[in-house]
Amino acid sequence: MKIEVLVRLSGFLTVLGLMASWEMIAPRRCLTTSKVRRWIANLSVVVIDAVIVRLLFSAGAVGAAMLAADQGWGLLNQVSWPQSVEVLLAVLALDIVLYLQHVMFHAVPLFWRFHMMHHADLDCDVTTGLRFHPVEVTLSMLIKLTAIAVLGPSPLAVLIFEVLLNATSMFNHGNVRMPASVDRVLRWFIVTPDMHRVHHSILPRETNTNFGFNLPWWDRLLGTYRPQPAVGHEGMTLGLEQFRDPARLTITGILLLPFVGVPGNYPLSRDL
User: Fold this and answer.
1) DSSP string of the chain?
2) Pick from 183-197, 217-231, 237-251, 258-272: least confident
3) What are phi and psi of 120, to 5 degrees?
4) Residue among 112, 123, 102, 139 at smallest CA distance from 214
5) CA–CA dist 153, 76 (Å, integer)
6) Are 112 and 161 contacting, i.e. CB atoms less than 8 angstroms apart?
7) What's the farthest any 2 CA atoms get from each other in the chain?
8) Per-residue pLDDT tens digits for 116-149
9) Residue 27 forms beta bridges with which residues?
10) Which of 30, 173, 259, 260 has a 20 to 30 Å separation from 151 between CA atoms?
11) Cα dihedral 105/107/109/114 (nearest 10)
12) What would the pLDDT profile of 154-213 be if each residue is shown by its tens digit?
């Protein structure tokens, strides 16, 4: 377990540092609020989430995979396939579970209340990819543990997925510029910052698209893909229409949003 923590922490710090440097060298958009203030709030949430997850789920997702292997739980523990095939299938399966979970957090008004803390950020950068309410993180972990019990992925597959998820979340929330030709090719294989930024638009019809974190295929296959925002990336407004006061977006303020804020017109169920 110490190796798992070391791998995940090393990956987290490396990607955070690389993306923060890229944002300074080649930003995609001008920030509208104080970067220091946002980073303090967003990174504080990361610490709070990590503490809560460790207290509630001491073994974590990798530990759950080890338990499933010991007990013979899950589909993949019933077969003897090459490790590379098993890891690939596990990562794909866990990724589509994550996609469906993300759609659910937009479709169910109660879940949306907690997820809207993520969307209330008035800018979108590497730290936005880490900004999730502790209740949402807890629910997400419960869903992940259930998926692991049903699927039976190896601990290695779960560790790879966890590292990829954390890295791609920081990557695709990055306020970074890349050539349009590179983005067009890359978004066939991974969710790019320009693809995911559409999801953070203030317009509900754009917010309720591009749900993928790692892989872009589920959005394309299931009809939730939108290539670009209507007014372009420089012209679009990020965040939620009911939370426009930067003074409310302190660590205390954002943690209280689900309880004192209004959901607005964003839950997907309102469009059904």
Assistant:
1) -HHHHHHHHHHHHHHHHHHHHHHHHSBSS--SS-HHHHHHHHHHHHHHHHHHHHHH-TTHHHHHHHHHHHHT-SGGGG----HHHHHHHHHHHHHHHHHHHHHHHHHSHHHHHHHHHHHT-SS-SGGGGG---HHHHHHHHHHHHHHHHHH---HHHHHHHHHHHHHHHHHHT--B---HHHHHHHTTTS--HHHHHGGGBSSHHHHTS---SS-SHHHHHHT----S-TT-TTTPPBS-TT---GGG-SHHHHHHHHHHS--TT--GGGG-
2) 258-272
3) -75, -10
4) 102
5) 6
6) no
7) 55
8) 999 999 999 999 999 999 999 999 999 999 999 9
9) 176
10) 173
11) 10
12) 999 999 999 999 999 999 999 999 999 999 999 999 999 999 999 999 999 999 999 998
d(CA 174, CA 168): 10
Q: What is the pLDDT of residue 203?
A: 96
Task: Say how many C-beta atoms besides its own lie within 10 A of residue 242's C-beta.
Answer: 16
Share of the chain above pLDDT 90, in %: 88
With tokens 């890349």, the residue in question is 178
Domain residue ranges of the chain, discontinuous segments joined by +: 2-271
Range of lowest pLDDT (60-74, 83-97, 241-255) = 241-255
